[in-house]
């Protein structure tokens, strides 16, 4: 990785894209290739090593496409989540597995995999590209701007990076793109086959997601079924070290072996318009035919009223924040934040204080 060292400034030393190679981040990359949003110095793909074949195929296609526009696509990785989880010699990998306790109660194991396999490698790469690899201190005022593909229908996921040297930005929120608009945009540019990016064995898949893997990625399905069996009584590393699980682990939310679940059962309460509740019901939108596929043919609205309200609020909040930053010389991130959990405010920056 070529490092760039810059002096402290209010401008980013680097413009990065966190590329998941799914629908939203692919849209952001194509927007930059077309010059609709500023170009990126590099697009970073954090590879967990266990994505569907279609995601890797899209990544390869994007690499060629982006390089023509002068944006290099680089892969960063902290290892292979599947082989690490099954390796008795490897430190415990914490995936959000569904647990069935001896008393019949259910739960969800702690989730650390996103941080370990996605966020940490991206932060490490950003440091290296800025020219301050760990443990060197990144000087105050030197930072990378990192674009994240979050569309308006998933605004709740917009977060600050948590570190001073990375400022997250959300181009799709700025442009008002929801997932359906992204799908439409990709289709118009010949990227209509872009699928959702997530690990093959992600316990957050719903029936539709599992069904998609079973029907479109037979090797991936076989690996997921094997993985599901292998983790039934805990991760091999934990078992080897005497930390036996009292209950059982499962990939599917029903706490049944994956190959015994009836994935073809229709949703109990089908909804015409996908809402976060629908996605929760199913766990996650299916790869490749996410939100739009769940909509009935004669329904046109793109977002349910609650989401539209949140989106309007977001814009209002942003205008106020920007006005305030200007008048205060950038000392505070915002005047009065109406986001109930202030830590969730996408404009919050480490070091900024709230005005009293
Ligand atoms: S897709 Fe699922 S399993 Fe993979 S890193 Fe994210 S939460 Fe973990």
From TrEMBL:
<feature type="compositionally biased region" description="Low complexity">
    <location>
        <begin position="284"/>
        <end position="293"/>
    </location>
</feature>
<feature type="region of interest" description="Disordered">
    <location>
        <begin position="275"/>
        <end position="304"/>
    </location>
</feature>
<protein>
    <recommendedName>
        <fullName>Phosphoadenosine phosphosulfate reductase</fullName>
    </recommendedName>
</protein>
<dbReference type="InterPro" id="IPR014729">
    <property type="entry name" value="Rossmann-like_a/b/a_fold"/>
</dbReference>
């Amino acid at each position: 990785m070529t490092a760039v060292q810059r002096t402290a400034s209010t401008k980013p030393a680097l413009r990065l894209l966190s590329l998941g190679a799914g629908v939203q981040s692919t849209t952001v990359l194509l927007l930059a290739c077309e010059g609709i949003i500023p170009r990126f110095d590099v697009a970073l793909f954090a590879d967990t090593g266990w994505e569907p074949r279609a995601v890797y195929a899209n990544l390869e296609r994007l690499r060629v496409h982006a390089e023509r526009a002068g944006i290099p696509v680089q892969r960063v990785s902290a290892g292979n989540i599947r082989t690490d989880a099954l390796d008795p010699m490897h430190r415990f990998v914490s995936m959000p597995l569904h647990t069935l306790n001896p008393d019949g109660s259910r739960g969800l194991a702690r989730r650390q995999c996103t941080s370990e396999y996605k966020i940490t490698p991206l932060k490490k790469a950003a440091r290296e590209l800025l020219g301050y690899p760990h443990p060197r201190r990144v000087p105050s005022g030197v930072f990378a701007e990192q674009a994240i593909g979050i569309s308006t229908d998933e605004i709740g996921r917009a977060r600050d990076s948590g570190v001073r040297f990375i400022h997250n930005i959300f181009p799709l929120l700025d442009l008002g793109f929801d997932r359906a608009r992204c799908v439409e945009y990709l289709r118009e540019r010949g990227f209509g086959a872009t699928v959702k990016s997530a690990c093959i064995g992600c316990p957050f898949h719903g029936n539709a997601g599992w069904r998609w893997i079973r029907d479109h990625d037979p090797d991936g399905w076989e690996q997921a079924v094997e993985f599901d069996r292998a983790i039934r009584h805990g991760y091999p590393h934990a078992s080897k070290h005497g930390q036996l699980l009292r209950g059982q682990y499962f990939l599917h939310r029903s706490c049944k072996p994956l190959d015994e679940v009836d994935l073809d059962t229709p949703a109990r309460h089908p909804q015409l318009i996908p809402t976060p509740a629908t996605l929760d019901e199913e766990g996650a939108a299916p790869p490749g035919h996410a939100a739009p596929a769940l909509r009935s043919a004669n329904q046109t609205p793109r977002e349910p009223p609650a989401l539209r309200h949140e989106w309007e609020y977001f814009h209002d909040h942003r205008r106020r924040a920007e006005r305030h930053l200007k008048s205060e010389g950038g000392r505070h991130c915002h005047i009065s934040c109406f986001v109930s959990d202030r830590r969730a405010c996408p404009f919050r920056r480490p070091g900024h204080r709230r005005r009293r």
